[in-house]
Amino acid sequence: MTSVLVVNSGSSSFKYQLIDADDERRLASGLVERIGEPTGHATHDVPDGHWERSLEIPDHTAGFGVMLDAFREHGPSLETHPPIAVGHRVVHGGARFFEPTLVTPLVLINIEDLSDLAPLHNPANVEGIKAAQKAFPELPHVAVFDTAFHQTMAPDAYTYAIDAELASRLRIRRYGFHGTSHKYVSGAAARFLQRPLGELKQIVLHLGNGASMTAVDGGRSVDTSMGLTPLEGLVMGTRSGDVDPAVLIYLQRKTRIGPDDLDDLLNQRSGLLGLSGRKDMRDVIRAADDGDESARLALEVYLHRIRHYIGAYTFELGRVDDIVFTAGVGENSAEIRARSLAGLEHHGIEVDPDRNDSRVGGVRVISTDASRVTVLVVPTDEELEIARQTLSVVG
Ligand code: ADP
Description:
Strand content: 15-25%
Bound molecules: adenosine-5'-diphosphate
Distance between the termini: 15 Å
Shape: globular
Oligomer: single chain
Order of helices and strands: EEEEEHEEHHEHHHEEEHHHHHEHHHEEH
Structural class: alpha/beta
Largest sheet: 8 strands, mixed
Number of helices: 15
């Protein structure tokens, strides 16, 4: 009855899941948040119960103490389900980390060194790892990187056409993100279709608050829409996705906006929010249905960008066997799925309206039987993928 503890740390919070190492059941999940604020908050969920506590949680180390208390008081007992490893989500692995990696002092230094590329995430991930190491000093800790899956991209796909020396010195290139999800979802689709992953050409659409698309050839990422940071590519809840870089130069000249405000503008105040004043896709769809022009345009820009990448990845792959939708919007919005692929019958893509509208959960096909390209919905499970990759390292 061994288990794996999966941890996803932010700067003032962390999420955790305890996953059975044998049958992959979720034994518990929780969230410790508002770390460092006067009143912190913790939730702990097990299949038959939900607990919440408000108390001061000065730092991540104290947060893991709160988590251990929750396991002791509400189960499952870590003695009857002993974790054999802790898997940590790490956002940026740069070009150094291309697979799940056992955390050593040198690995931690390297993750810290990549903080320039992910200033909001990597320092928080390191803090979470260090605190978890204190809570579980005897266990192996494994880092699973959001960027790792995309390390199979070839130079033509990951290189920006800018001054090569400068790019090399500052490590400027496309890295891609959501890799754990893209890997999980493309693998799950292949298993569902009972086809060897190695012979499938797939396009995966991870459409959540953050959104990215990946062209997956034989289980390997060959191109992805996010870049040096998660800002590039699709229109997202609050992120712009692709813009002409000259827009930023123009803005700087015209408004004297500084780098921090520009960062905030493009990451926090753009995308669906910037276009329509709403960042939640459900609100945007509702407003568009009610005749709101800005919401209607936001949806059209969002869909235009998706279709742009579907076209690009179809040509890059040369053939597409399946297209997979995942994450909040991809799993739940029949309208976005239908409109993303409308009118592509000549390209062998035919969504079945009844299958698409069905509310059945789990992995399912939403294309017609005649569709040459199979279209699927696959619920993503990044924590399970992290647990699997962690186990692959510790045996
Ligand atoms: P995150 O990137 O934060 O993990 P999620 O994958 O949870 O995000 O996706 C969140 C997004 O999913 C939100 O924009 C939300 O509106 C959208 N979403 C959830 N359910 C639906 C639905 N039924 N229809 C349209 N969008 C939905």
